[in-house]
């Protein structure tokens, strides 16, 4: 049976569901392919909130400026203006759908402070904002009747004779059946590349599948070296302690009990942007003022009542995974890989350079985050640009005939996967994955330099060669996670190399990218995006200009 | 670190399965999911198991650990040291393979639950203490532990008749929304099967989010049903109206 839709969305997190709903509202027949169930998506991990200039004393210009400054002037200002202008409407829309945001003392929407923001403009649902929004959007999705291919792994993008995207192949993880799904437009909403690093705050499914699919299909990946290290992650399992802990007034202390942020950000202190705080924390740890490889996050002075009202989940995380009760003890934290600012290059409608291919959310690079994302701008990006990409994809689909793809493509893909499962080999996926992840964390972390990056490049090229010898430990069809893990590793090895290639190319320090051997920002040469293009021999880097509308680059101080 | 633990993990397909024992090296703070992933990575790569966030946010890794429904990512191994730890798939749902069950029934039920309905245009004005009542149910991560433990669904084959604790909580989420104007009493009476719950509180005991499903969702909604549908005066009014030919469908409340 030939499956076909006008718009096919890959991924069912916030961006994916928002895109699907928008495409349907524009009249398209829509379906979603997701490798988990929609409510399992990593959007549920977003704790802190979602930004919007809703308060009359605030303005979208102020939100946009904070975002531009946070991005270290690498964000494209036309896109950032759209993000900030559409934010208030997005919040109101979510509330209408049924998201129950916290209130202030007058019963209005209540906001909290977040890093790098000049106003308290982060709206939130306790400390489980992402999860609350995810489940409400899922409710809308269920109501819409949009078909979801749950637990289907998208393994390939299909193109028509003219090079436009015309569908995907995916396999049903539960039965092993391979499907060919035709589409007039495809929207990739597959999230971040977190698991390229080990550890990472990201869920285990964050393997950048969509980014790799687009990259291999010829779409460039932009600013891949811009990887956000979140200042407060737990040592034991890399879990995230939300910025809301600092937004509510938490302190960061070194082993001497000193609030070390006063040295680098005397005004914003703990609420400087994440790249600034992570660097400062890493310096404390590297210079011997850490506690067991960590710094301390202290919220005790907020009192038990406020902690229980505003930060219950975070306290729970501390109890479960660090064995510390934040009401009575500081929690040891360290910077950890958290977010990928870069991704598939798109315009402000989510369109990639490939006809019919769109992207939104963390896998896309519009770019609103530039060199460093502000907290609570990512949830906002998913709903604003998810909606835009879905609508644009529907419009594109309506003006295009469905490509007739030969059914044999399905058989070809089935054969390819079968060969992969059955091939002999001595390498193990888990071992290669760990080696890749630890290499990235050690050598492509908060502080970088050319020799270390070159060495990482060599190691990754070697891992790429060794991947050919991976044997898949499960030969069956039902729920074959070994096959999924191998395909994910295949994707991630490509993505890891683009991160390193971008990091080598960018010979300056900007945002989250700190080159010890090029410690200054260099606007003359590097007020530019890096673009990674796929070739059989690895990534090739070019550059593209940054869009400046009204904010000229100046030095960044917090 | 030479400490070890033995996990006895269910392996197999619906008609052909048994527990197998695996020796796992212990590390401080290790949880059951770490052990299962270690087993999958090091010993049996064809072990089927769902996981994702490893931080009790996504609800994927529900299993029966030592006979109790729990999230593997949230269950520490040190609590079970010195004995064999049994890990089995959820009992209430059909087995796919190993620790993976077919939970799609829940998602089909989700499609039948009436959505929230607010009459006023957002942004809304609501007091914080009122918002809290609805927010409690927004915490649900849909891990299906409560559906697994609910004896109506587990022992009595109630899947055709009762939506289960998760979806009563879902209805409560809308019902407790301060500005909701939807009427779900008909649905509760005629379709939800809420009457089958005899309030044993097992569901709220296993909830990893500590949502008081029985106390704050099931009991208040049973009361709303009783108040509207079982009130003798209202029943009489309804019967009278039906006789007068002005009635709605059965179970519909009077004025």
**Which topology of the largest domain in chain A does CATH recognise?**
FAD/NAD(P)-binding domain
What summary fits the major beta sheet of chain A?
7 strands, mixed
Under the CATH scheme, which class of the largest domain in chain A?
Alpha Beta
CATH architectural arrangement of the largest domain in chain A: 3-Layer(bba) Sandwich
Overall description:
By secondary structure, chain A is an alpha/beta fold. In chain A, 37% of the residues lie in helices and 18% in strands. Chain A is built from 16 helices and 21 strands. In chain A, a hairpin with a 5-residue loop joins β8 (165-172) and β9. The model of chain A has no long low-confidence stretch (mean pLDDT 95). Chain B has 10 helices and 7 strands. Chain B starts with a strand and ends in a 12-residue tail after the last helix. Chain B has helices at residues 32-43, 104-110, 128-138, 145-149, 151-154, 165-175, 185-192, 202-206, 213-229, 232-243; strands at residues 4-13, 16-25, 62-65, 68-71, 85-88, 95-97, 100-101. Chain B has 255 residues and is α+β, with helices and mostly antiparallel strands. In chain B, the strands form 2 sheets. Chain B has a 5-stranded mixed β-sheet. In chain B, a hairpin with a 2-residue loop joins β1 and β2. In chain B, α6 crosses α9 (213-229). Chains A and B meet through α3, α4 and α10 of A and α1, α2 and α3 of B.
Q: Which key phrases capture this entry?
A:
heterodimer, A: 558 residues, alpha/beta, FAD/NAD(P)-binding domain, Flavocytochrome C3, Chain A, domain 1, Methane Monooxygenase Hydroxylase, Chain G, domain 1, 3 domains, seven-stranded mixed sheet, five-stranded mixed sheet, 16 helices, 37% helix, 18% strand, B: 255 residues, alpha+beta, Ubiquitin-like (UB roll), Fumarate Reductase Iron-sulfur Protein, Chain B, domain 2, 2 domains, two-stranded antiparallel sheet, 7 strands, 36% helix, 15% strand, elongated, disordered C terminus
